[in-house]
Design a protein that fits this description.
Two copies of one chain form a homodimer.
Chain A (H helix, E strand, L loop, with lengths): L2 H11 L2 E3 L1 H9 L5 E6 L8 H15 L3 E6 L1 H6 L14 H15 L8 E5 L1 H4 L4 H8 L4 H5 L2 H8 L10 H13 L3 E5 L3 H13 L6 E5 L25 H8 L7 H8 L4 H10 L1 H17 L1 H15 L8 E5 L4 E2 H7 L6 H9 L3 E3 L2 E2 L6 E2 L4 E6 L3 E7 L1
Helix pairs in contact in A: 1-2, 10-11, 12-15, 12-16, 13-15, 14-15, 15-16, 17-18
Chain lengths: 390, 390
């Protein structure tokens, strides 16, 4: 793709660009640009929501620009200083580095790792003194920080905002100063923070970065944005069978967005598929996603498996577990097959009707299995384990 | 004075105490207490307004407690990070130390310097990292900081509040943590900041300091609080004659407050003086103030001098300047007598009717003085210089 084509695609798919002229000028300058994307230090599981932005970075990378991921390990290692969040435990230095590596491994599914840089913002923020912090904080007014949507909302609703939280957008913005970023990209929910970076660069005497924000991909529930914690996501690391199945669950109303934002398929192609038969469009989408992340053959297999399961059959090539040829209770069997982390969870699953033996539902927790050479234990619609007694 | 008596005086003269029981308990504990007072690093000129609190510290010092002045040099050396205040220039390290010494010299007029400690808050704030700052800021919410009167007012009026300003009360409060202060005293305008210290100590696992706030002494204008920049002050360093004259200018409506807050005179004594003859009360007050800061003899002389001037006379013991026995223009004479910093200022003074020669007003700027052995040049009501031609 040419610079012009990339610019047109960025313009088409973004929510906003600050500023279009600046972006155009930088792209056409012939300079190798530094393009920044902030990354959460604690959650290395990338999903299709992340891929929206990553795929745009790929285009920019292919034009020869430098992609820089900033892992926000500085705040990650501090945790929640107000001590109110019991869940946000501080990360250790080792954890942030391990997460960074995992992040890079996953990013490599979309970007060329050789041309991608990972940096950790503790490298500069960790060296700042109280005096440096005051200099930074002095560049911004409380009123401007309070304009950030979530702050304004929480303040209006009398919800507590820690004083330290006012510093977070400034820290994120300062990352752009430290990196001399030329462009920063992010989800549209990050617009405020990205613009802080742009303004701080000006305050520190640098050319302000161009900011490009992209739509947030709605999750499979069709309501919330895709996120791991809401379990409405398709991970880029997801195993082909599960990825295909999840992709088939994209709501009809969103399938066009998913095509546009997460695949390279031509608009004319998916639109005609959708017009012809919406179910066919879903199959095409699921195939395309598995193909992108696992290749052609995996896509074929995943589709075949999906069809078998849909028809009530048991798919081929499922995991196997070998147990001693002795009588075993159904609870112990489910646990031994790895379908429940504990006996009590196994009991709950059986009682809830979630477990099948050779594709027949079992709800009697007292059942004993004996005198068979093998049996397929399944959980829900998609988890199958063949148990071999030998 | 006994601990009980001091407690009663603190209770009587303070605006508020947080908490009375806590203060009582600490004072009666027999422990040597650390008593903190924050001090501005840039303005070492103490006046009677400062003396209100310093005199209370003296009582506590006489009970054996440790008085600690915290010079806020950390922010003093940073100046205004927003760069908006052109007047607040950052102080150098040397300036803050010099100011601290001057401060101590003046404080010595009220407190025993041997039992008084001066510390500089850059000693601990200067060592804090960004991570430490976040930990500190995490202890407080934006809403609580915004309760501070001036912030609430400025926010309501859409006046800019720098993000760094939110950190100032926390820094001042952290000083109490660093010092393990038992008690902090201050003017009533500092109540918010002093209470932040109390709360932060709790957050850092210390016993919270007791906070005692005192009324702000109104200045000689009877409107604003006493302050050097408003020129409505009586400095503790002021020369006896001027001190007496300024003290005579305390408004009638305030003389009782001045007696109570700035002298040791018994209430019955000044009340009976005031009832008898308000002018007599003013003289008694002026005498007492000069006596406190300069001794009995200086008070006698200042009173005598005041009376002479009041009667239109020329006081004795005035400064002398010797000039060559040659004709001299009035402008040059005023400047040579040290009553004007420049010829143009001397001309302005003469034209304005502010200059007398031997107690007679002179407004002719062309006047030449010759053929006399000496002449008294005076400016306003109180500045007299005897010029000797020899």
């Amino acid at each position: 793709m040419t610079t012009q084509e990339v610019f047109q695609i960025l313009k088409r798919d973004s929510i906003s660009i600050f500023s279009e002229e600046g972006l155009k000028e930088k792209l056409e300058s012939g300079k190798r640009l530094k393009i920044k994307l902030g990354a959460d230090p604690s959650r290395p599981d990338l999903h299709l929501g992340h891929s929206v932005v990553l795929r745009k970075l790929k285009m920019l990378q292919d034009l020869g620009h430098e992609i820089i991921f900033v892992i926000g390990d500085f705040t990650g290692m501090i945790g929640d200083p107000s001590g109110k969040s019991k869940t946000r435990k501080p990360l250790t230095f080792e954890e942030t580095r391990r997460n960074g590596k995992t992040y890079m491994d996953q990013v490599a599914k979309i970007l060329d790792p050789e041309k991608t840089t990972i940096v950790y913002n503790s490298d500069w923020l960790g060296k700042m003194t109280f005096a440096d912090v005051l200099q930074l904080a002095g560049k911004y007014t409380v009123a401007r920080i309070m304009e950030r949507d979530d702050f304004a909302k929480r303040f209006a609703e009398n919800q507590a905002i820690g004083v330290h939280e006012m510093l977070y957008p400034l820290m994120q913005g300062y990352d752009s100063v430290a990196l001399h970023a030329d462009i920063e990209v992010g989800g549209s929910d990050q617009t405020f923070n990205l613009l802080v970076g742009r303004e701080l660069q000006r305050d520190y005497g640098q050319a302000p970065q161009e900011v490009i924000t992209f739509p947030l991909l709605p999750g499979l529930d069709g309501v919330e944005k895709m996120s791991k914690s809401l379990d409405n996501y398709i991970g880029v690391d997801e195993e082909p069978g599960l990825m295909f199945e999840k992709a088939m669950k994209v709501p009809d109303t969103l399938i066009e967005d998913y095509f546009r934002l997460t695949t390279d398929m031509a608009e004319s192609e998916y639109k005609s598929l959708m017009a012809e038969d919406i179910r066919k469009a879903h199959f095409a989408y699921a195939r395309e996603i598995v193909r992108m992340y696992h290749g052609e053959q995996a896509a074929d297999e995943a589709e075949k498996r999906y069809n078998e399961v849909a028809k009530g059959g048991i798919p081929q090539n499922i995991a196997t577990v070998t147990l001693p040829k002795e009588p075993i209770g159904i609870i112990a069997l489910v646990a031994a097959a790895g379908l429940a982390p504990s006996n009590s969870e196994a009991r709950r699953l059986i009682q809830g009707g979630g477990i099948k033996l050779d594709n027949k539902q079992v709800t009697d927790t007292k059942l004993t299995i004996e005198g068979v050479d093998e049996i397929v234990v399944s959980k829900g619609k998609n988890k199958f384990v063949k148990v071999i007694f030998a």
